[in-house]
Every structure is written in structure tokens, then in C-alpha cells.
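Quick sanity check, Pyridine nucleotide-disulfide oxidoreductase:
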Amino acid sequence: MGEYLIIGNGTAAVGCIEGIRSTDRESGITVISAEEHHVYSRPLISYYLEGKTDLERMLYRPKDFYGKNGVKLIYGRAEKLDPKKRTVTLADKQKKTFDKLCICTGSSPFVPKFEGLETVKKHFTFMTLDDSLALEKALTKDSRVLIVGAGLIGLKCAEGIMGRVGSVTVCDLADRVLSSILDSECAAVMQEHLEKQGMKFMLGDTAVKFKGNKAFMKSGAEVGFDILVLAVGVRAETGLAAQAGCEVNRGIIINDTMQTTVNDIYAAGDCSEGYDSSTGTNRVLAILPNAYMQGRCAGINMAGGESSLNDLIPMNSIGFFGLHCATAGAYPADADIFEEKSGNGIRRLYVKDDCLAGFIIIGDVNRAGVYTSLVREKTRLDERALEMLKASPSLAIFSPEIRRRKLGGAV
């Protein structure tokens, strides 16, 4: 089928490699990696800081992955993409040609233009293994750490370093933690748990200016620190795609085969903008499982197979200090809400038009997979199924036909 080129070396790239090899075992595959590391599981960088894993166990695929799949791995940064000449030029000026290309460039930290940031000697982002290793070198048992951003990245960073520093303060302009995935009441449950672990919060407030080791907050407060971590947000890496003439919005526009608007160029993962079936809109779904599925879909199609994805949804499974949280889908304002509280946990289900539109679970997340399938497949729920959903969700909620499919023929 020709020469395959993949820009990026993360989860989506692995999916793409495995998608290609499921259809084409012979043609060459080249991967261009801006990070000089074997592919690793990015969500584990906080667990590395916490001492719960090591560099070996962080590998997303075994060390022989590239060799077994006939992949040539090149460390370097792609700087120019020419779709007419079918070439990619790296920072060191070497050029790579391709017949089919997949852009898996992911996302990068969004760092606002803070006044005085250049005066802060120890400031970091927290997106990559190199970020984690650099931050680790700066930590001391007495460090006062200020984290700007109370989203997933900021809070996982805070969890990772809590036992290694003197104090951790997290600020965010939003009025709650994890504001992109939790509503106010569920966020309050998680915040209370985090505060019990010693984490401090300044919510509805954020840094606007720095001078040395002092942050000046929007509220007028002043916060001293030794180490600053910026976890304000991320942006899809779309520059190469835009340069090549691909349509770009917040992410690289793709269809349900992961094809961009330029022939033979595909995109997958956090850099892409695809269809969110829970809302019926196109958006960036920067989530590891979706990145792999998109990459695999792209790889199959690049190799001449047939694959499509039209049921991706936002979903998260995360835990902090032993308290787990799972979310998926959308939370429509006009949905019927079923809620159950127990101890420090909460289960909130959003039902609209006889379908589970979305859910938030904090605490016991053992049945979250059933809920996720219901959201993804837009399963119609009759009165009996709704009662089962509220009581103890199981495969019995699904029709016999769907159960047979999920269980490989068994009922």
C-alpha cells in the first residue's frame, strides 16, 4: 500500500500502527516522535511522582513494539508538511516522504501571557514525562507549590506531589474543581475529599501577575510559593495540518473514517475534532481511549480496510487518594435526574428522551461500563429498564440481541 508516516508517538499513534498492521503486514511505517521516549502512558506521570510506578511500568507497549511491527522510529520535531510533494520536513532539515499520513500530534499546554512569569525561576507545565522529570528535580520536602488550574491535569499533579512537599495550593477561575466534567454538587464532594488530604483551594480566583515567588491574584490576594505549575488548559496541535491546507477549528476536522479534508492525510487523538454522539456536535475529545480508537480506525483506512467511528463520547475515569470518579456523556439542562448518595459517594444519572444521556459517579464505579455503553449506544429504556438502571445496572438492561453481541453469542 506504500509508505505510511505517523507524526506523533502517543496513544493515537499506537492505535494507528496496530490498525495498519491488522490489514497490511508488509509496507513500511515511520513514526516521528517529538519526545525522545518509547511510547508511554501519559496519565501515569503523576503516579510516577507519587512513587506508585516507575519508568519501566509506564510503557504503553513493550520495548520490542516497534521492531515487531516493522516501525522505524525517528526522534525529531516535524516542522513542515507539504501535501503536494508528500513530504514532512523535520527541524534538522531531513525530509520524510509518505503515501498515507496520520497526524497524531496531540495537544500542548495553554500558557496565558502572565505578567512577570519570566521572573519565576521554577515554573513548569505538567503534560509530558519530561515535565514530570523536571518538576521532580525541583521538589523538596519544604516546597510551597502553587498550581494554577483545578482541572484533571492540575489535580493529578497535586496528588502526585502532595507527599513530597510542604504545601500545595490550587487556584482556578472556575468556582469548582474539575469544572469540565463535574457539576457543582459533585465537585463539592470531590473537593472536600481533597481538602482532607491537605490540599488547599482558591476557587473563583486565579493568578494574574507574578513577581519572583509571589502571585498576585484577581481577588487582590497575594500568594507566596517556591514552585509554580501552570495547568490552565491545553490546545490541540493543529499547526502542521493547517499548513497543509486541512480544515481546522479547535482541532483538525475529520470525518468518521478519520480522514481530514486533504486526501491521504488522516488525524487522530487529541489534535483532532470529530463527532461527539452524546451531543450531536463536533468537538475535540481529548481522552485516551478515544485517541486509541481513532488511531486504529485511521490506520485501518490508510491500509485500504474499512472502519468508521460515529459513537465516540466524552468519558473519564479517574481517582484521587482512593476516591474514584467516572463520568460520560452530556448533562442536558432539561434531563430527568436520578441521584443517590451514600457515604462520601454520589451517583447522578441524566435521562432524556428515554435514554441515558450522561452520568457522574463518585465512589463505587464498578458498574460504570454498563452506563457508558448505554450512553454510547443511545439505548432506549422502557420503564422496567429505567428501574433496573437506578437499582443495579447490568447487561440485563440490554435487549437479547445486544447481549448476544456483547457476550460473543451467549445470552
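Posting the structure with no commentary besides this: The first helix runs from residue 11 to 21.
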